[in-house]
Design a protein that fits this description.
There is one protein chain. The chain contains nine helices and eleven strands. It has 288 residues and is an alpha+beta fold. The strands form four sheets. Strands 1-2-3-5-4 form a five-stranded antiparallel sheet, with helices on both faces. Strands 6-7 form a two-stranded antiparallel ribbon. It has a two-stranded antiparallel ribbon with strand order 8-11. This is Fructosamine kinase. It comes from Streptomyces pseudovenezuelae.
Length: 288
Amino acid sequence: MYDRGDGPGAAATRLTGRKATGERRLSGALSEVTLDDGREVMVKRADSAEEARAEAAGLRWLAEAGAVRVPTGYGEDGPWLVTDLIARGRPSREAALELGWALAGLHRAGALAFGSAPPGGPREAFIGRAPMRNVEGAEWPRWYAEHRVLPYLRRAVDDGTITLSEAEVIERLCARLPALAGPAEPPARLHGDLWNGNVLWGADGHAWLIDPAAHGGHRESDLAMLQLFGCPHLDEVLRGYESVAPLADGRLDRVGLHQMFPLLVHAVLFGRGYAEQALSTAKAALER
């Protein structure tokens, strides 16, 4: 008889109301759990209850926009988060084009301010395993510098990953953000951690989004992160996006600005290689 105590199966039972009949560990944090009605769900154990709450609130907020596909969530219980399991397929140009349309709709749903947390989500949130503080601001360049770029730059310096002299390059970029950021945009509803690993290409022929670090931000940030870490058929994603919500002229010159935050997060989490990429990106942006 299946019985795993207070593990993934027990969490799935509590949150779905169905008995768990089996589980398959995918990693230290993820398990696929089979329920007694034949459904399969994904069970994630976060590092803390607040991390699980932040992710659950983000998934709900993205779903409420009615634009992108996200797994149905069954809620969180302490560090446990349970969602539907998405059967995996292969990327296709058609799905990528549709993802572009969907992202445009998500961003257009908006947010109260830059840095707004999803309703029910914590101010002290997360991007991956790193802390991310949701502090609201009215102007994107100042907010982005103060609450996204500089906190991670300071931590990278404190950790010895970036030197003080190198940090000055990124600080100069932050000072020039008002001139480099392009036309003012209203706060968009962002996925917030949109690298290719958080795009699931489903067996149903659609793209699904998981693991958000959702907040109010600049819509070009999601697109720049897709470009930073690579995305199948990115040209089709962008073509679909711009057919619905054209981007301001000069977007390619601004990609590096929007990549500074994820690059510094990765520098803090994974070390010097990403720090060097952040520095080269900052230098290139300053030379434009």
